[in-house]
Amino acid sequence: MRSGEPLPALGDVLAALDTGLWHWDTAAGLVTVDAVAARLLGLPAREVTLTEAQVRARLHPVDWNEITGVVQLAVAEGTIAEVRIRIMDDRKRVLRVVRSRSKPSFDRDRRAYVLTGSLQEVTEPAPGTAAGRNAVTGDWRRSREAFLLDAGRALAEARSTQEVLRVTANLSMPGFSPDGLAVFGVEGDQLTIIGHHGHEPGADNPFYMPLDTDYPAAEVVRTGRAVYLSSPEEYRTRYPLTWPLAQRFGRRSWAFLPLTASGRPMGAWLAAFAYPVAFTPDERSVLTTVARMLAQALTRAGAAESERALTDGLQRSMMPKLGPGIPGMSIAARYIPTGGGLQIGGDWYDVIPLPGGGRFALVIGDVQGHDVRAAGLMGQLRTALRAYASEGHRPDAVLSRASRFLHGIGDADPAEPRFATCLYAEVDAVSGVLEVARAGHPEPVLRMADATVLTPPTAVGLPLGIDPDADYPTTRLVLEPGETMMICTDGLIETGGHDLDTGRQRLRTVLEEHRGNQEELADALVQAVHGPSSHHSTGPLIDRREDDIAVLLLSRQGGGCGCGAESDTVRPPVRRTMLTVAQAEPERVGVARHQLRELLHDWSSADQADSAVLLLSEILTNVLVHTDTDALLLAEVTDGGDGRRIRVEVTDAGDDLPHLRRPGELASSGRGLVLVELLAHTWGVDPRGEGKSIWFELYEKHGTVADG
Predict the structure, then answer these.
(1) Are 178 and 197 in contact (CB under 8 A)?
(2) Could you tell me where the beta strands, DSSP code E, fall in 395-496?
(3) Helix (H, G, I), strand (E, B) or coil at 474
(4) Which of 203, 372, 637, 654 could disulfide-link 199, Cβ–Cβ 3.0 to 4.6 Å?
(5) Distance separating alpha carbons of residues 538 and 57, to the nearest angstrom
(6) Is 602 in contact with 618 (CB distance < 8 Å)?
């Protein structure tokens, strides 16, 4: 360039260097490539936006797995992510090798990776050519070891027979790679085909034949010895009767290797080559090792598929069907077993019709453990709970009997006693009243009609099976029209490294922000515990969950969101909470303050919210100090059209009516009503039949209370 001339644009420089650019946003699942990068991927040379699936289809599957691991490592270490990638053509042959370099970042808000990088072709000799053989001859051992490690990892990660076949079809062997393969199995005295690659549809039909046929794969199964055919002439000479089966595919060399499991042949693997292969000792060694790994992978995949079919059937038999709809109510449920292993555990849920009509019970529980015994105990306990509930017992009696039942079962194996947590809720479908009893289980969560989320305090007893004489107090809740109750097992809360507090906050966010129907909400709650994509799949991290997940949603239909039905005739209060504070439980004053703060989470004036909490605390404390009765709190936020208001009412059975007085400087009491007078917009004391009610109201304004 002459001095003073402007520098060329970056895109022109990269194009001159045959280097492409790409951008990948994992949250959107889209990859944008420029014209050079598109050409290197085997696509028309123009800028295009592709889905992750479209890009993955162009890459070697083992390399795709490596990409995800390299990206995560680069983010953790703050380094450049560099990886060599094999680009595959439409016939799943290696088209070229490219080098990708990028500086990835992780967006914590969206829980996604964002990458912008370059793509450049790496010049390597083509497999099967003389240059290709010379390139690997001097470093055969290193190439072979790297390939076998790569192949072993990919086959070990394959979880189904089809995935094993797909991985095998895309293995790129050092210096020589087959462009066609078939995997044969044995059924009785018949040779069958499990899967094939590189043959036209219907090519598997001729391979269904008796084992005594003069065919290489049948001979391999009969003898357990490999057959190598380096040329069409050799194939035609040794197997003249079945040569026409192979002739039409136009291959030049074939290797048939036994697939052996537990010392006996379980099938054969055919690797066919489009170019002549001499099958040197090194090449035979690689093929033999791959055949052994393939046999092990197929054995694991078959066992896993049988196990999954067994456990899925067992789990389906244990999980109830929600049955016909309940008038005025709707229910949604999800159950997902922990990943890996037997994929069955001790979590369960149930919906039980109760005697008398109009009532039903919701049950959710978790038996300790994730093994067959836990699943068996779960089935027994679920049956016992249904029996006790169907007899018409109240929630506390149902759990007491269930605890005694589980304790008795545990005595049969004192070396490994088991317990279970459980939540049992009796529901009146007409009134929306819920009688809730808990045995060490996470408390229910209420989502109100305006998506405000509250965790109402509910009494709790010991987990089932610990003490056969344990009591289980009940708590009464009311599900208003448009509201949804969520009950779940702790797997939904704590999976993903969360504790109870952070896990609840994660679920609270989902409940508050969701705007779909009830079924979509159930799916959103389950998906909230899935982390970023696995290193080896594009799906969620199912196999890394620490516990089973069960969740049950109960919605009362009416003018709200999330229950899947709306009503123009019912307009419930925006939100409401109720709580009893007993004389023997002064600590529940703090619970009441917390409930009121949750109710006012989006109040426009933080000072007003603080004032409401202060006034509530004063009124409740006065009841506990100046009477010998319990206090009932009712807090309600309503919208009158000209703005919202909060009304807080505390009722007790005391006879003495409070009155406003001016306490002296040294007085120890008498300031509660003075604060109410100063801070509330309006307040009052209403006599009741037995006792009284003290109430105050605040009107939502963007200014101060005095402005109103």
Answers:
(1) no
(2) 420-428, 433-439, 445-447, 453-454, 460-461, 474-478, 484-488
(3) strand
(4) 203
(5) 12
(6) no
Please report which residue ranges of 420-539 form alpha helices under DSSP H: 490-494, 500-513, 518-527
Residue identified by tokens 């800028």 is 47
| pLDDT value, residue 243 | 93
| 681: Cβ contacts below 8 Å, ≥ 6 apart | 645, 696, 697, 698, 699, 705, 708
Locate tokens 């520098």: which residue? 7
State whether residue 9 is helix, strand or coil.
coil
Considering only 26-30, 259-263, 701-705, which range has the smallest mean pLDDT? Answer: 701-705
Beta strands in 653-691 (DSSP E): 682-687
| Amino acid (one-letter) located at 51 | T
Q: Which residues contact 338 (CB under 8 A, 6 or more apart)?
A: 345, 370, 491, 545, 546, 547, 548
Query: What structural domains does the chain harbor?
Result: 10-124 (3.30.450.20), 137-310 (3.30.450.40), 319-556 (3.60.40.10), 575-707 (3.30.565.10)
433-439 and 460-461 beta bridge pairing: parallel
User: pLDDT band at 73, cuts 50/70/90?
Assistant: low
3-state secondary structure of 602: coil
Average pLDDT of the residues of the chain: 80
**Gap between the Cα atoms of 395 and 474, Å rounded:** 7
Residue 592: partners with Cβ closer than 8 Å, 6 or more residues away: 579, 581, 616, 617, 620, 633
Amino acid identity, residue 292?
R
- Distance (Å, rounded) from C-alpha 40 to C-alpha 18? 9
High-pLDDT (> 70) share of the chain, %: 78
567 — pLDDT class (breaks 50, 70, 90)? very low
pTM above 0.90, yes or no: no
Neighbours of 485 (CB within 10 A): 22
CA–CA separation, 351 and 321 (whole Å): 8
Question: Which whole number is the average pLDDT over 567-576?
Answer: 55
Strand partners, 83: 100
pLDDT band at 268 (very low <50, low <70, confident <90, very high): very high
Structure tokens at 652: 């007790």
Q: Residue 642 in contact with residue 663, Cβ under 8 Å?
A: no
In sequence order, which ranges of 4-129 are alpha helices (DSSP H)?
A: 10-16, 35-40, 52-58, 61-77
Distance CA 342, CA 458 (A): 34
Q: Which residues have a Cβ under 8 Å from the Cβ of 646 and sit 6 or more positions away?
A: 599, 600, 603, 612, 635, 636, 637, 697, 698, 700
Whether 545 contacts 124, CB under 8 Å: no
Q: In Å, what is the CA distance from 504 to each residue of 68, 498, 514?
A: 30, 9, 15
β-strand pairing of 180-187 with 460-461: unpaired
Token duo for residue 181: 């393969």
Residues forming a β-bridge with 576: 636
Sheet containing 453-454: which strands, arranged edge to edge?
A: 329-336, 549-556, 484-488, 445-447, 453-454
CA dist 50 and 30 (Å) reads 6
CA angle 261, 264, 269 (to 5 degrees): 65
Provide the pLDDT for residue 171: 74
305 closest CA partner among 188, 194, 191, 170: 194
Q: What pLDDT shows up at residue 240? A: 93
